[in-house]
Design goal:
Layout (H helix, E strand, L loop, with lengths): L1 H23 L5 H13 L22 E4 L9 H16 L3 E6 L8 H18 L7 E6 L7 E6 H25 L1
Parallel strand pairs: 2-3
Antiparallel strand pairs: 1-4, 2-4
Length: about 180
């Protein structure tokens, strides 16, 4: 029984201390509130650090690069413009570029006009990207089945591939002659 009286005494003392603490807490005056607000407002706001933007991957040049068109259209769509913009820097650096317009003559009545128009609109977009007009040659084809596109072919890259193939071939023939 003595233990429970001691426990009650401690609980009463703790309650009394809590009440005394609350009673001594005076409400803030208007001036104190303004100072507290001013202090909060003058602290600099911290913004979360922005994640760094990863660098764009290098453009992989596919030779030839194909720009697709709707079957009945000669208008370059947004995807086509983006593709040409991506290869624009490489196209400016390259030598001769051949743009071939395609339109299937079995599906479209004026296929030659459509094929040429697709090549021309693609050429114009390359020129808008800064490619020299003198580096661009236009061709057309109406014999490839179901192909409604324009191809951008970098002849300089093709020559480089042929040069590498010729060098490998020469190296092989040199090796065989050394064995004889």
């Amino acid at each position: 029984m003595a233990f429970t009286n001691v426990t009650r005494g401690w609980l009463a003392a703790m309650g009394l201390l809590a009440l005394v603490g609350c009673a001594s807490n005076q409400p803030m005056s208007d001036e104190s509130e303004k100072q507290a607000e001013g202090t909060l407002q003058t602290q600099p706001e911290t913004k979360p650090a922005e994640a760094p933007v990863p660098p764009k991957p290098p453009v992989v040049l596919i030779n030839p690069t194909v720009i697709s068109f709707e079957k009945m259209s000669v208008v370059l769509d947004e995807k086509g413009r983006e593709t040409i913009a991506e290869i624009g820097e490489k196209a400016k650096e390259s030598g001769k570029i051949t743009v071939t317009g395609f339109c299937d003559r079995r599906q479209i009545r004026n296929s030659m006009d459509s094929a040429v128009a697709r090549a021309v609109v693609t050429r114009d977009e390359l020129i808008a990207q800064g490619v020299a007009p003198s580096n661009i040659v236009i061709k057309f084809s109406t014999v490839t089945p179901k192909k409604h596109a324009a191809e951008i072919k970098f002849e300089e890259l093709e020559l480089t591939k042929k040069s590498v193939a010729a060098a490998k071939s020469a190296a092989r023939s040199g090796k065989t002659s050394a064995r004889n």
